[in-house]
Design brief:
single chain, mainly beta, ten-stranded mixed β-sheet
Amino acid sequence: MIPERSFWLIVASIVVFSRFSLGAEYIGGAKQLFIDDRIIDSLGGAQRVFKQAVKTQPLVSASTGWETKRSLAYPTVRREAMNSWKMWYRAASPMGERIICYATSTDGITWTKPNLGIYPHHGGNNNIVLIGKETFLDTPSIFREDDGYYLYCIEGDVRYVVYHSSDGIHDWKRAPRGLHADHARIIQSGTNAPAPHNFDICLAVFDPYRDDYIFHFKVAHREQLFGPNDWQRKFCQHRYSGSLATIQDMPFPRVTPRHELADREDESVEPGTLRAENYGLGMYPQEDGSVIGFSWLFSIDGHNGPVSKGGDGTSDGFWHYGPVNVMLVYTRDINGPWQRPTRTPILPRGPVGSWDSGMVHTANAPTEVPKAETAGAATDEIWLHYVGANHVHNRNPSEGERDHQIGIAKWRMDGFAALEDTDGTEDTVITKAVVYRGNQLTLNADVKANGYIRVKLIRVGDGTDLKGWSDAVSGNRQNHVVRWNGEDHIGNSEGEEVVLEIRIKNAALYSLNFTTDAAPPDRDESKR
């Protein structure tokens, strides 16, 4: 019997000499996370471990006379500078108005609701920045450009619109035409007919690596599970390049409702699920062109029948019941399919009786927080503000009233998934052939006291060992610079096809990145 370590070394040799004819993955200097096997050929005994969020207690609640508890939802959070955070969120007044409120913070944790004096509620002592021109105003996404702030949201009779304000607080003005108010441009069942129901969720993010926007919005199709006029939620998306100042002049492209963010297998996430649907999608663009998503998985476990009837006696739809968890999804190309690498919620609803026991909904995008501004974290962190509800969709809690509050889901930087040695023995991970740009290799890794990570680079084709095994990487850091006999320069293999062998023992590897003297990539952070 071949010892396990020798077996994987033999596999490595086979991999190196077989890659030449298959081509290589060009990764340039883009960071590589390990959510999937894009650059992985063999895990060699290591395990891919997905990491659930670490959740805080609620930080923002409906604490004023103009906010009803059940209405607090859909925050956009911006860290605009050190000690300068801003939040916009949807609420509803006791009079039934859908409103956008504003809060500030110095740390993203403790929030203040300033008295702005813009609207007359409670003598003007409120934090309301916008009451929509229509009765319905929902899911705001906020961006900053050179001339001020832009708000993308749904308003009125399923119209997606854009507002502008010079400071993000005063004098919000709606663009004369919405982003995609013309529903006839949405392809429904192979036709150009409008998708006529459930346009109540729309989220957008700015991609700083491509200098454009990604828009996501929910549509609904007729489904036969609960009745002839049952509505099933799907989603549409598209990219937009340009300033939001001119978006009202953009001819919106035809888009097709998509369904790959929920399927029959997802029905196993919650007991009693009759159908699983994607309710919304937060997004997190990555340097390598991929997009990480936070899919709001709605597990429908019941309904109350038709909610209304039209003049012809037909149903206008159903009220669906059920919990909502957040699932990790990703796409390597926003125009390609979305994948779900794990069926375990990355942000699960809380235990029975907790503040987020019924549903969790995320902000449109997470915030990257420097470790210097966290409570002693080993790396920068990813903070995703989210709304927790003490009730499932359309169903009252067993005790008390419906209540929505805002907390934070946290991960270490790149911390959604790690390649780990889980049994205390050395494992050898082998990558596919890659072509990189740079002269240094950095790792985001957590190495335990009795563990290590070592790396070897092998030239594809002739199997040349470029540098030998690296020095042992140790400690818990975001940017371990890999060294060979104390030297951190890789050599002259930039632009060539190479395979990496990575030995892991008692360690978790979150990402790798080829860089030039560890210089971070240039990107536009102003609109994030």
